[in-house]
Amino acid sequence: MSPCFQGLYLLWGKTSIYNNLITSLSVFLVNLCYISINSQWKKITLFESVMVMEGKDNKLIELIGSHEGKEPFFIEWLLSEDSIELPQKKHRILSEIDGTRENSIDKVSEWFIQHHMDEKRKSRIEKKKKTLEKQGFQNYVQKLNFFPSDNKTIKGNTAEIILAEYLKATSGLDLLVYRLRYNPNINQSMKGDDVLLLNAADVFGRLIVGESKFREVPGKAVIEEILDNIGNEVTYPLSLLFLSKILSDRGEDEIAEELEDLNSNMHTGKTDIINVGFLLSNHNTAANVERHLYSRNPNFVLVSLGIENPANFISEISDLAIKKISEVEDES
């Protein structure tokens, strides 16, 4: 029996060896234990093993909810595993289920359109389809720049959209405004919070501030960037007044005023602020996050999504979104 498991036996064994408790505990703190989680052997510290044995690894679910949320699509598209949880590490690992790429591209392209175009604009496009011939309509759409053409912005926007929709589904909170519709420069990343979710029925209860990143290779630098921006201390939302103005312009004055009040009282500690980082990258994403994730923010979760050929995935989403709003059915 290894020293680690000998120590565990002493700690949780018969009362006749209770006097060895203190000595055994000292040994545990410098030993490493191996346990099996989801059929994979992982090296963990004694502290982690105690957390697992006592079932105290549900803070992550308390913060962002379970993967089995309100949107069945994510269960059909992605596998989910919550890493062994520590105060300094809460990591949800997402990976693509084989054979789901085509359906996921179709679904995310719909979200891509929705996050960039409001219903009035889409309605105007449909009217133009009926008045312009096919070639003229496609040229018309191309000149309107509904979506970014800059490759870096497309990648960043798509990662942001996936994070927003995922957290909506798992947390039950609301995305009050599709902020990308209001970007004054479509080809530049937008200032403010990438994702800001609140409860429309009670904006003072809790909220999620999210930051998303796309990288073709998930290096240490991007993980450290997320931690510096949102993971090392509680990060307050920057966009509450931006949301308030938009809602006020829509005539939703009551909730607009509530957001102004929330902004004024944000530092009182009465609102639960949850910070979420998101990294969309290749198949090595989870391993690199596990290696480098160390957060001093107790309300921080990092969600990683590792897929094959992530750049191609993003490109196909953007291309399909453009095709969906540009295509005109041939009259037969």
Pairing-aware structural class of the strands and helices? alpha/beta
| Fraction in helix | 40-55%
**Beta content:** 15-25%
Q: Catalogue the unreliable spans.
A: 1-56
Q: How many runs of DSSP E, i.e. beta strands?
A: 8
Describe the largest sheet: 6 strands, mixed
Average pLDDT: 84
Widest sheet: strand order?
3-4-8-7-6-5
What's the order of the H and E elements? HHEEHHHEEHHHHEEHHHEHEH
**How far from one another are the termini?**
77 Å
Whole-angstrom Rg = 24 Å
Please state the overall shape, judged from the principal axes of the Cα atoms. globular
3D structure, described in words:
The protein has 332 residues and is an alpha/beta fold. The protein folds into 2 domains: 3-56, no CATH class; 63-98 and 145-308, no CATH class. Helices cover 48% and strands 16% of the residues. The chain has helices at 3-12, 21-28, 46-53, 59-64, 72-77, 101-116, 119-131, 134-144, 151-171, 220-231, 240-249, 253-264, 285-292, 310-326, and strands spanning 32-37, 40-45, 78-82, 91-96, 195-198, 206-214, 272-281, 300-306. The strands form 2 sheets. Strands 3-4-8-7-6-5 form a 6-stranded mixed β-sheet. A two-stranded antiparallel sheet has the order 1-2. A hairpin with an 8-residue loop joins strand 3 and strand 4. Helix 6 crosses helix 14. The longest helix is centred in the middle third of the chain and has 21 residues, at 151-171.
